[in-house]
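Entry for the shared binder. Reason: the reviewer on the internal report wants the predicted structure included alongside the sequence.
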Amino acid sequence: MEIDVFFVREKILAKQLSIIHIPALDQWADVLTKPLSTSRFEALRGKLNVKSLLKTLLLEFERGGGYWSM
């Protein structure tokens, strides 16, 4: 067993750290580590507050601002 496991165990026993279950649907790291369907990818990407650059540029273009107006 590695030392960090003992460190975490001590913190839990001392009530300095609590552990909760995270359901599979809320595993945000999946967006970076697993192949996902488009809908699942976009849902998790939204939770990370990451936006599509293309959509952002298109919205700016439609408004007549941003990088498009010179």
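Summary line for the report: The helical segments are 3-13, 30-33, 38-47, 53-63.
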